[in-house]
Amino acid sequence: MTAPLSGTTTPFQWSIQSVPAGRLTVPSARLEVELFLRTTLPGLRVIAELGWLDTGAPLSIIPFHVHNRRLDWSAVPGVTVSWAGQTCDLGSIDIWLPTDQSSSPRGPFSLLAKFPRSDPPGGPIPALLGLEFFVSHQAGISLLPPPQRGVIQVP
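and the corresponding structure tokens:
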């Protein structure tokens, strides 16, 4: 038996698409979560972005097309990293998460992320919420089988 969730919960949902692979059709699943990111755009404090919950990513990724001249983030001086063949700055940004308990998002939560200096080839992808967020904020995940939604629990 699992312990009941406490704190606030942020919903996320399954997104499953069929992908052809030769003579097979393979389900490709993503976990979608709404993120609110601090912005530099005039008249706005935060902007909403679709994100993918990525339990395989140690750090979050804020793709170039998402952060370029739109987000208020701070680089860690002198630190560069890479992602998908792209040079990235390591930095921090404040995020807010929607909750089941309130119509107002909860936050700010500081997030350590890679900020690529350009987008990799191929279609654009959304922000990736990596495991550093869960470790830093002692957050948990409740993942039920599709099509049921899951939740992120933040104490």
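(Above: one complete record from the training split.) The longest strand covers residues 24-38.
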